[in-house]
Every structure is written in structure tokens, then in C-alpha cells.
Specification:
24% of the residues are buried. The chain is built from 3 helices and 12 strands; from the N terminus they run αααββββββββββββ. The chain is of the alpha+beta class.
Length: 277
């Protein structure tokens, strides 16, 4: 009898803890969740700093000819970027001039806040990243996250020096988009993706005049509606469309960039100017 009571004690303790959790107020649960995340954050961030240190020392071990060759390649890339920056400044000046002539309101501005990825959480239902920046860098929940090739996702949770980012492949992410070359807006949503399969999403309210096939995909970009993501950021490629159940529009399948699961650094768009929170 004593052995049976000893075996049932862990189960009884679990039942008591679960019942106590159910009756706790919502604010108490939120406080405990945030406190637990802050308590475990150093364990998440430490491996990221260790990887940075390993990368630093691995670069120190390169020979002098390798460093000279890398410097030459970097100089070519810098020259290309310098030209792109000059062209971008000219285009921005032209846009500002046209906005002034048409008396259009100024568009919201952003600054890029780079952040290292410290953890990935990929499953059939959750597609998330943890980054090494938080409220200490001015990041807030809902801020868009991008990389060199387009949209990564949006910030869903913010802590002292870490943040959780929902990838655009997450089923809970919806944003206004459009098929490149067509001004009509569509609705993009992340899909239920396998843990080790290619990430995909869906688009709704696609006009009947748009066609896409795996051999000739159409690029899907942000439309700028909603004021969260700037217009023109790449989301993925529309590979196929089919009539929706209502018969008025089409629904489509969007193939996302497979490199989203291997990102090591992203950038958070922090609003500046009149649009800043």
C-alpha cells in the first residue's frame, strides 16, 4: 500500500499544479510566463555569443593571401553598394518632390535594427524565431522583421533583451499583399507546414485574371496596406491558383524562401519620425 501511494504522489502533485494553474487569473499567468522567459533567456542567448566567438577566432586563423582576396571581394561589394545608395538617394529625392507637388502625406519611415537569431522553433503549428534584441533596443510587439530577400515575419513577444518573431509561414500571420504587376490587393496567410518540409502559405481574394504555374510563378509582395509592412517587400512566389468556393475570386499557394529556416541575422523595422510609437 505504501508503494502505491508513493507511485501516485507525482501524479497527484501534477493534478494539483494543473488545477492551480487553471484557476489563476489571466494577469498572473502572463506575469509567470514573462518571468519564466526572462529567467531562461540567458541560457538561450549564451550559445549565440559562443558561436560569434567561434566565428571570430575561425576568421583569425585565415592566411594573409586569403584575407587579401577577401578584402578585394569586399571592396567590389562596397563599390556596388555605394552606387546603389547613390541611386536610392536620387530616387528618394524624386519621390519626395512628386509627393510635394501632389500634396501627398509623407510615408512612414523606418530604421533597421539588426539582431542575431538565437533559437528556432519549427513545428507543424509554430514557426518562430528568438532574436537577441528586445525592449532595450526600442523593439515593440507587432514590428515587422525583414532580411535581404524580403519579409521574415513580425514581432509577437518582446522581453528585456530578447524577442519572439513569428515567421510568415506561421498560420497566425496574415498581411495585405499583391501579385507583382497587379495593383489589386490580396490576403496572404501562413500555412500548416511540416517540420522538415518546404514552407508554404496561401493567398485569398486573387482576381480571376491572374494565372500562375510552377513553371512560371508570380512574385507576391507586400501592398503597404495596414501600415505595418512597407510596400514592395518580397513574400514568396505564387506557384498555382484555383477558383475559390464562392466563385468570385481565386485562392493560391505561395512558395516561401527555404532559407528562412537557416537565417542567422535579421533586421527589425523600427518606425521613426511621426509614425514612431
Amino acid at each position: 500500500m505504501q508503494n502505491r501511494s508513493d507511485q501516485a504522489r507525482p501524479f497527484f502533485t501534477l493534478v494539483v499544479v494543473a488545477a492551480a494553474w487553471l484557476v489563476l487569473p489571466v494577469f498572473a499567468k502572463a506575469f509567470l510566463k514573462a518571468s519564466f522567459f526572462e529567467f531562461t533567456a540567458p541560457a538561450l542567448v549564451a550559445p549565440s555569443y559562443i558561436r560569434d566567438l567561434q566565428e571570430y577566432w575561425s576568421l583569425r586563423l585565415h592566411t594573409r593571401p586569403e584575407l587579401i582576396e577577401a578584402g578585394r571581394d569586399l571592396a567590389r561589394v562596397n563599390a556596388s553598394y555605394a552606387l546603389s545608395i547613390q541611386q536610392n538617394a536620387e530616387l528618394q529625392a524624386e519621390v519626395s518632390r512628386l509627393e510635394g507637388m501632389l500634396h501627398m502625406p509623407a510615408r512612414p519611415g523606418f530604421r533597421l535594427e539588426p539582431a542575431r537569431v538565437v533559437q528556432r522553433d519549427f513545428s507543424a503549428w509554430w514557426q518562430r524565431l528568438v532574436i537577441r534584441k528586445g525592449s532595450d533596443a526600442g523593439i515593440q510587439s507587432g514590428f515587422p522583421v525583414v532580411w535581404a530577400e524580403g519579409v521574415v515575419g513580425r514581432v509577437s513577444e518582446v522581453h528585456a533583451y530578447t524577442s519572439v518573431v513569428e515567421l510568415i509561414s506561421n498560420p497566425g500571420v496574415r498581411l495585405a499583399a499583391q501579385v507583382e504587376g497587379d495593383p489589386q490587393p490580396v490576403s496572404f496567410q501562413g500555412g500548416v507546414n511540416p517540420a522538415f518540409g518546404p514552407a508554404r502559405g496561401t493567398v485569398e481574394f486573387v482576381p480571376f485574371g491572374i494565372f500562375a504555374y510552377p513553371e512560371t510563378p508570380r512574385k507576391v509582395v507586400t501592398s503597404g496596406l495596414g501600415g505595418v509592412f512597407p510596400a514592395g517587400l518580397a513574400i514568396g512566389n505564387l506557384v498555382r491558383v484555383s477558383p475559390s468556393s464562392d466563385g468570385l475570386f481565386k485562392t493560391g499557394e505561395v512558395q516561401l524562401d527555404p532559407r528562412l529556416s537557416d537565417l542567422t541575422e535579421v533586421s527589425v523595422l523600427v518606425p521613426v519620425g511621426p509614425a514612431a510609437p
